[in-house]
Amino acid sequence: MIQVERMIFMKLRSTFAVIDREIYRKNIRLIQHQIGKDTGLILVLKDNAYGLGATELARVGMQEGVSCYAVANLYEALELRKLDSDIRIIVLGYINEDARTIALQYDIDVVVWTKELALSYQQLGFSSGKQARIHIKVDTGLSRLGFLPNEESLAVLEEISKMEHLTIVSTFSHFACTETDDDDFSRGQLSTFLTFVDSMKKRGIQPGFIHMADSAGIVKFPESHLDFVRCGALAMGSMTGTDVVKSSEQYPTEEIISLYSQVARVQDFPKGTSIGYDGTYFADHDIRVVTVPMGYGDGLSGELSNSMQVIINGKKAKSVGAFCMDMAMFDATGIDCKEGDTVTILGQDGNEKVSLHDWTKLCTSSSTFLQSMLRNKIPKEYK
């Protein structure tokens, strides 16, 4: 049985996560070694590091010499800025007009994908006497944000490059299909991006450093390791789909999250008993049901109902019945257990293991989506 040191918060909640900073450190070192000294690493910590705690993981990154971080919004950027005044922090998403002056005030890098955004930062730079550090986003196929790779965009970027209070730090794009088998589409995106960057240079537009690869791109397309790569899921050990096989061969990173709860109730029921809401499960055998105090309100995806497994005293128990908001039931037939016993939801107990990758096999969601769903109300212990 897993023995986990209990902290004070365990008196308040029986469900908690353990985030292993040393495994994260090991993963970062492995990635740095594999991409080589000529390629820099941007650690992506958006959505509070996919739910695992951006501040704690950024501290590890800084100890390993990582000086550039990417987040989703300005709030996240300001939280990281409290750690260090010198690290580069890039807000990948939209910053509303009223908040842009705060980005400049705290030396936060911003992304530009329209002339209007560039003009806004140019004006703020002029009025504040500061340089706005901008990153040019190019839309090569994700159809989300970015300048389209055409002549019209080149003309706009030529104007932007001459704005006195803007400094173009980098130019980048984002893969759309690296977690699928459509490698041709991804290679086409990379080719389009590099051609556009070359066109920028021919127009006298200095692109700064260039980057394209996300976690899956790092694994699948070494040719996309340009000046920098952007890495989130790979450093957390939570790769998905076809990438997992290649990851295990070239980038054998490990998951840094373990998730535990406790047995709240053990009850035997006869064959034919209905378990959970909506009659989604009727026992086809005499069954021992264990109730665990974690449910969809904590972030368990409903897609995993009646399929995912947990580990109780070294043996796996399968979900039975639809998840409740704060509870879930599991088939513990043949397992000797009692109230208060540890339940391993993610992690290893004895010879058995449950991973985020196991969850992705049971539903249509990615590992990063499933991990991000785990709510902040789940206490986290960092070791």
Automatic annotation (TrEMBL):
Modified residues (N6-(pyridoxal phosphate)lysine): K46
SMART domains in the cross-refs: Ala_racemase_C
GO cellular component, one term: cytosol
Enzyme Commission designation: 5.1.1.1
Pfam families from the UniProt entry: Ala_racemase_C, Ala_racemase_N
The organism's place on the tree of life at top rank: Bacteria
Gene Ontology biological-process annotations: alanine metabolic process
InterPro entries: Ala_racemase, Ala_racemase/Decarboxylase_C, Ala_racemase_C, Ala_racemase_N, Ala_racemase_pyridoxalP-BS, PLP-binding_barrel
Signal peptide range in chain numbering: none
Enzyme class at the top of the EC tree: isomerase
GO molecular function, one term: pyridoxal phosphate binding
Cofactor needs: pyridoxal 5'-phosphate
Residues engaged in binding substrate: R144, M325
UniProt keywords, alphabetically: Isomerase, Pyridoxal phosphate
CDD domains recorded: PLPDE_III_AR
Gene3D superfamilies: Alanine racemase (3.20.20.10), Lyase, Ornithine Decarboxylase, Chain A, domain 1 (2.40.37.10)
Domain spans labelled Alanine racemase C-terminal: 256-383
Entry protein name: Alanine racemase
The organism of origin for this protein: Filifactor alocis (strain ATCC 35896 / CCUG 47790 / D40 B5) (Fusobacterium alocis)
Encoding gene, per UniProt annotation: alr
